[in-house]
What we know:
Elements: H1 12-15, E1 24-27, E2 30-33, H2 39-56, E3 62-65, E4 70-71, E5 81-82, E6 86-89, E7 95-96, E8 99-101, E9 106-110, H3 116-130, E10 134-139, E11 144-151, E12 154-161, E13 165-167, E14 175-177, H4 178-181
Parallel strand pairs: 4-8, 9-10
Antiparallel strand pairs: 1-2, 3-6, 4-5, 6-9, 7-8, 10-11, 11-12, 13-14
Amino acid sequence: MEQLRDERKYTYADYCTWDDGERWELIDGVAHMMAPPSTRHQEISGEIFGQLRDFLRGKPCKVFAAPFGVRLAADDEDGMVVEPDLVVICNESKIDDKGCKGAPDLVVEILSPSSAQRDKWVKFHAYRRAGVREYWIVDPDSKTVTAHLLEGDKYTTMAYGGDDKAPVVVLPGCEIDLGDAFAGL
């Protein structure tokens, strides 16, 4: 069951004042507590991060792993602050000491029971509206990746699984070996 901070609406400025030792996301002003990730979740995240890091070595884009705050509108009054599992940012001006201000080029969310619906529906629409060029939803249970690619103002979808090598469209030449990402599951 998802835990909300309370029923009121918050902004990024409010979020910056919280020092309760918990991790929160703001989705349309509503504060959602983030559960700690499972071991399986961390293994998948670490493997995908490693593959992205290796590909990006010596290139201008950077990969970051959670916890890493993303302010989709880069506005203190905005009510959207998310902590995707992984992000790739190719515009260095979007990176500051608090995380990312604006839409990353790639967002990767690894489903967990507490966040699956939010990742599949609410964040999907938020990322599309914000202009995230590529959004991956990784499902550990089915060992699949659903890649959403922004074309105009809509996402087109590609699905990968098993031992596929999934291309990262925003990083030409980059492929994620899903056999390695899902190894041991």
